[in-house]
Amino acid sequence: MALAILVSVCVLSYRAMARTGQDRDWVTHSNLVLERLDAVLADATEAENAQRGYIITGDEEAYLKTFRKAVESAKREEQQVRGLTADNTVQQRAIDGVKRLLAEKFDGLEQAIETRRAGGLAAASEAVSRGADGQRMEQIRIAVASMREEEGRLLVQRSKVWEESRRVTRGMIFGGNALALLFLILAGIAVQQEMTQRKRAEDEVRQANQGLEERVAERTAELDRHAKELARSNSELEQFAYVASHDLQEPLRMVASFTQLLGKRYGDKLDSDGRDFIHYAVDGANRMQNLISDLLSFSRIETQEKVFESTSCDFVLNRALGNLALTIEESGAEITWGALPQVMGDAKQLSQVFQNLIANAIKFRGDKPPKVEIQAEADADNWKISVRDNGIGISPEQASRIFVIFQRLHTRTEYPGTGIGLSICKKIVERHGGRIWMEGSPGEGSAFFFTLPMAKIQEKEVRQRDENRVSAASG
Ligand code: ADP
Fold first, then answer.
1. CB neighbour list of residue 148: distance below 8 Å, 6 or more residues apart
2. pLDDT, average across residues 174-187
3. Contact between residue 311 and residue 345 where contact means Cβ atoms under 8 Å apart
4. 453 CA distance to ligand 1 centroid (A)?
5. Ligand 1 contacts CB of residue 410 (under 6 A)
6. In the chain, pLDDT over 70 holds for what percent of residues?
7. CA of residue 408 to ligand 1 center, whole Å
8. Which DSSP letter does residue 369 get?
9. What's the Cα-to-Cα distance from 451 to each of 379, 384, 396, rounded to whole Å?
10. Which stretches of 347-469 are assigned E, i.e. beta strand?
11. Among 127, 175, 261, 442, which residue has the fewest nearby CB atoms (within 10 Å)?
12. Which of 74, 77, 27 is nearest to 47 (CA)?
C-alpha cells in the first residue's frame, strides 16, 4: 500500500510540475507578445524620425538606410506578433488593423521622401504638413495599446493560473514527502514492535529451555541417585546371598550327613515308611546343597576382582569339556567346534559359560543322540559365539524368560536343575561387555548366542593363530 501511494504521489507531482511548466510558458508567451508590440511601436517611431531627418537634411546616406531598416524591422515584428497570437482571434483582428495602419503610415512617409527628392525641402515640408502622418501614428499607438491591454489582461490571468499550479505542485510535493515520512515512521514503529515481540518470544523460548534444562538436570540427578541406590542395594543383596549361602552350607552339611548316618545305622530298625522318610530327607538336603552351591557361584561372579587377560576360547572350551567328560561319555554326545578367537576375559568365568551351555544342550536332549556345535564369527566389533544343539528346543516367547534366576520351563522330575545356570551365563557375559540370547523353536533344537567385545589386537592374534593352524595342517 505504501509503495502504491508513493508511486501515485510521484506521478501526480510529476504531472503537476509539467502543468506548472506549461503555465509558465504561457506567461512567458504573453510577455513576449508585449515585448514585440513595443518593438513594433519603437520601429514605427524610428522610421518616422529617420524620414524627418532626411527631409530636413536631404542626407540619404545618413537617414534613408535607417528608415528602410526600421520599416523592415517593424514588418518583421508585426509578423512575429501575428504568429504569437495565432490562437487568439481578438488579437488577430487587432494585428490586421495594426498592419494596415503601418502600411498606410509607411506609404505616406515614402511619398514625402519622393517629394523631397524631386521638389526639395519646401515642397516636402509642405507635403508633410498637409499629410495625415501624425494622425496615423496616433492611431497605431492606440491600436497597439489596445493589443497590449488585451495581452496584459491575459498575462494577469495566466500569471494567476501559473501561481495556482505552483501552489498545487508545492502542496503535492510537500504532501507526498509528508506521506512518505508518515510511512517511514509507521514502518519504524512496526519494525520496532516486531523486534520487541520477537525478543519477547526469544526470551520465552530461552526461559522455557532453561526450565527444561533444569528439569532434565534434576531428573538426571534423580536417576543417578536411583542408579546408585540400586547398585548399593544390589551389592548388598549379593553380599547377603553370598553370606547366607555360605553360612547355610555348614548346618546343611550336618543335616545331610547325620540323616545319612541315621539311615545307615538305624535303617534296619525302621519300617519301610521310616526308611522312605529318611530317603526324602537326604534327597532334600542334597538338592538344597546343589542350590546353595549354585547360588554361591552366582553371587561370587561380581564379588570377584575383575582381572581380564588375553584368553584363548579354545583353552576355555577344553576346560569346560574336561569338567563335563563324564556327562558327555554317559550321554554319547557328539561335540564339534570351529576356530575360536582369543578374547580379553576371565578364563574361569568364560569356561563356566561354555560348561553351562553345553551341559544344558546335553540335558535338554530329545530322542536323538545329542549333537552340540560351537562356532565363532566376527561382526564389526564383536565376536559372536554360538552353541547349537538338536534337543527339545524352546518356544520364542520363553526365550528371554530363561535367563532370569530360578526360571525353569520344566519340573524337577522331567529335568533336574536349579534354574540358576543361564542367569550365571548372562551375568558373566554382561560383565565382559557382551550380551546373550537364544533362538530356536520347540522340537527344532536351540541355539544360544553370546558376544564378546573384540579388541583390534585380539583380531590380529586370532588371524596369526589361524595362519599357524593352517600351516601346521598342511605341514
Ligand atoms: P536349569 O538348567 O538348572 O534348569 P538354566 O538356567 O540352565 O537352569 O536353564 C533354565 C531353563 O531354560 C531350563 O530349565 C530349560 O527349561 C531351559 N533351557 C536351557 N537350556 C536349554 C536348551 N539347550 N534346550 C532347551 N531348553 C533349555
1. 34, 37, 38
2. 88
3. yes
4. 25
5. yes
6. 95
7. 6
8. P
9. 10, 4, 20
10. 371-378, 382-389, 436-440, 446-453
11. 261
12. 74
143/126: higher pLDDT: 143
Indicate if ligand 1 lies below 6 Å from the C-beta of 361.
yes
- Confidence tier at 50 by pLDDT (50, 70, 90): very high
Residue 349: all three cell numbers together: 568365568
CA atoms within 13 A on the CB side of 13: 14
Rounded Cα gap, residues 3 and 155, in angstroms: 40
Set of cell numbers at residue 248: 547355610
pLDDT tens digits along 128-145: 887 777 788 899 999 999
The residues near 369 (Cβ < 8 Å, ≥ 6 apart) are 331, 332, 333, 334
- Nine-digit cell string for 468: 599357524
Q: Whose CA is nearest to atom 12 of ligand 1?
A: 402
Question: Which residue's C-alpha cell is 504521489?
Answer: 9
Sign of the torsion angle spanned by Cα atoms 49, 52, 56, 61: positive
* pLDDT surpassing 60 at residue 200: yes
Go through 358-374 and write b for each residue having 16 or more CB atoms within 10 A of its CB, e for each that does not: bbbbbbbbeeeebbbbb
Residue 371 gets the label, from left (phi > 0), alpha (psi -120 to 50) or beta, of: beta
Q: Is the CB of 370 under 6 A from ligand 1?
A: no
How far is residue 137 CA from its own chain's centroid?
Answer: 94
Grid coordinates given for 395: 518356544
Confidence of residue 287 (pLDDT cuts 50, 70, 90): confident
Query: CA geometry: angle at 248 spanning 247 and 252, to 5°?
Result: 135
CB of 446 within 6 A of ligand 1: the answer is: yes
Cα 417 to averaged position of ligand 1 atoms, centre (Å): 8
* Helix count and strand count (H, E) for the chain: 10, 7
**Roughly how many angstroms between the first and final C-alpha of the chain, as a whole number?**
96
Helices (H), 304-368: 313-323, 325-331, 347-363
pTM: 0.52
- Using a 6 Å cutoff on CB, does residue 422 contact ligand 1? yes
Residue with cell 545618413: 62
Residue 350 near ligand 1, beta carbon < 6 Å: no
Residue 1 scores a pLDDT above 80: no
* Maximum separation of any 2 CA atoms in the chain, in Å: 207
